[in-house]
Structure formats: C-alpha cells, structure tokens
C-alpha cells in the first residue's frame, strides 16, 4: 500500500446508499457545483489539492461481457477520492471542525453514517469505509496546495516585472523591484520534505 | 461538465479484474505486485507520459459492509481503479499514455477483463472510456494551470527567493542588469521533470494513525 507520496495523502472511501437517496445527493452536488459561495469552506480548507465524489449506481459498474459476471447489487455507492496535505488525523479533524454541515449533507444519505460530529465516531466510520492505495504518483511531491498557489503568484508577479524591466531606468526598476518583493515576500516559503508525524 | 474543473480533468476508471481460479498468483495480486515495484518518482510511467498532476491505482477488492441494519452484499469482480487528475481533454491524455508507456499499461491492465492491449491505440481509448465513470462533484484547488506551468512556477519560486536573498543592498543598475540575466536564464531552462523535486521518503504506508 502507498497512501503517501511526498506531502500528499491519497484517501479512497466507498459507502453504500439506498438508490432513491442518491438523487438527493446528486441534487446537492449540482447546487454545490453551480453556486460557488457554497464551496467557500472547501476552498478555505487549503490543504486539499484535488477531491472528487462519484455516485456509482448499482447497475453502473462497468460490464465488459466475456467471462465477467454481472454485478447484482441493492445499493448505489458513493466513491470519494481525496488528495490532501498533512496526516489522516489532521484531515479528518479539520473536515469535522470546519465542514461538518457540508459533510453531513454529503454522507447522511449513506448507510450508518454517524454524522461528522462528534469526531470519534466519524473517524471510526471513515476508517471502516476507507480502502488503501496501491500506487500513488504526484508530479510535485514536495509541494502542498498552498505552495502551488504561492508559486503561481510569484510566477505571475515575476512575469509582470520582467515585462517592464528592460524599459525602465535603473531607479525606476529598483522601485518596481521593491514593490515586487513586497508582493511576493509572503509566498516564498521553502518547499521540501514534510515532517513525519510522531 | 463535472469531470472537468477549469482546465483540469478528473478521470475515474474502474476496470474489472479477471477472475481465474487457476491463475497463481491471482490477477489482482499480480497487479499489486507490479505496482509495488513501480517507481513513484521522475522515472514513474506517469512522469514520462504528459499531463498527470496526481494519479493513483487501487485494487478495490469489494464493497464495504458497514454493519446492521444495512444489507451485506459483495462484488462479483475485483476492480482496478485508475484515478487521475490530468491536463486537457480525455482523448489527448489517453493518447499520451498509450503512445508513451504502452508496456506499463499492458503489464497492468492485461489482468483486466476485455483489455485490448495498447498496440491498438483506438481500441485502448475505447476500452478506457467504456469503463469510465462520470464524476459527480470535482474540486481542484488550482484548476487553470498545466503540470509544466506548475512545475516551472515551483522552480521559479525557489530561484526568486535565492535571487532576492543574494541581491539585498545591490545598487539599482546592478540589480536591473542581473535581474534581466536571471529572467533570461529562467526562461531558457526547461521545467523540472514531473516527480523529480521531491525528497525520498521510505515510509509510504500512510496508515490511519499517521
């Protein structure tokens, strides 16, 4: 198993849902996708690089004929894949503390979901429905989501400065350079190895 | 479309694994064995093929029973789940995989039902699409930058920090001249290779308590 690569953790979870409930969940996700302010808490949890939910209908498993036996299931399933920075405990704690209402709206349709608060029973549930990753690749293992956002701010500011750098007088450039340094100074944190959780 | 967030594509492909009682070891174990030996760094197949931000391969043994009063049920097949966050459109990404790393694809997916092989590019693409699931909700923290743009930006971030540190107190003319040289050098360098900038870490398990 290989749930970690550099600073990223890969989480997979699958939960059963009664088929009629998946339509409510699809409706919620539709609203979440189209009303951007509803995503604010998710964005504020700035340690998530990518996350996705996939509703897998009980008759929606790929069937390719040949020797494959067709699935015969009573439940639809909700798949969750997340790529986050930090440890499993930090992630679940933060999810529970910041996103409890949103999480409840997502998983309350799943069987036996205990609610995201209190966090102890929530963790037990996630641990039960999680399955491990066999192979995990990231193009930038040394960087967190915040590092990536910062790096793009630095790149953009540098591009703007370099556009005018040649035409300025030395003094004008020095002034522009100072403004550039002020702009990027809080985005220059060093990337590198993640601390090992004790 | 929920599969996309900005310019990033969220790909989810579960492929049924061949059930064969006579196979020793079983096909799912053969996949796991191959994946365990595959590099996750710059010599990873996904670093060689273009456009992968993050990707994972997971053998899903079964659905999970959450306890009474839920019904207990089981899958008929195990599934190899390929989950990728990649650049651009799906066809272009799959073409990039099949053109760059066909041997790895065959070594992994030959254990899956109906896999046509990577030698026939269109059949490979059709197979992947036949197994693909649509994403219901997709979130990407940064959804308007390609892999190479992000790698270049990360390199720039490090180099800019060094430049600022080494040019404190420089006079205006020197600063301008050396800044222009610095920018020209940055532009002339290729972006770092995907997977190349991370530290080696032996612990990869990431158990529940880590």
Note down, in words, how this protein is organized.
The complex is a heterodimer of chains A (198) and B (210). Chain A is α+β, with helices and mostly antiparallel strands and 198 residues long. Chain A folds into 2 domains: 4-131, Alpha-Beta Plaits, CATH 3.30.70; 145-187. Chain A is 44% helix and 19% strand. Chain A contains 7 helices and 6 strands. In chain A, strands 1, 2, 3, 4 and 5 form a 5-stranded antiparallel beta sheet that branches. In chain A, a hairpin with a 2-residue loop joins strand 1 (4-5) and strand 2 (8-17). Chain B is α+β, with helices and mostly antiparallel strands and 210 residues long. Chain B folds into 2 domains: 4-131, Alpha-Beta Plaits (2-Layer Sandwich), CATH 3.30.70; 146-210, no CATH class. A 4-stranded antiparallel beta sheet of chain B has the order 1-2-4-3, with helices on one face. In chain B, helix 3 (90-100) packs across helix 5. At the A-B interface, strand 1, strand 2, helix 1, strand 3 and strand 4 of A face strand 2, helix 1, strand 3, strand 4 and strand 5 of B. Strand 6 of chain A pairs antiparallel with strand 3 of chain B, so a sheet runs across the interface.
The CATH top-level class label of the largest domain in chain B: Alpha Beta
CATH top level label of the largest domain in chain A = Alpha Beta
- Percent of residues in helices of chain A: 40-55%
Strand percentage of chain A lies at 15-25%
Number of separate strands of chain A: 6
| Model regions low in confidence, pLDDT < 50 over at least 5 residues of chain A | none
Overall 3D form of chain B = elongated
**How much strand of chain B?**
15-25%
- Multimerization status: heterodimer
Radius of gyration of chain B: 22 Å
Main sheet characteristics of chain B: 4 strands, antiparallel
Major sheet details of chain A: 5 strands, antiparallel
What is the CATH architecture assignment of the largest domain in chain A?
2-Layer Sandwich
- Rounded mean pLDDT of chain A is 91
The average pLDDT value of chain B, as a whole number, equals 93
Label the overall shape of chain A: elongated
Helix percent of chain B reads 25-40%
| First and last CA, distance of chain A | 20 Å
Tally of helical segments of chain A: 7
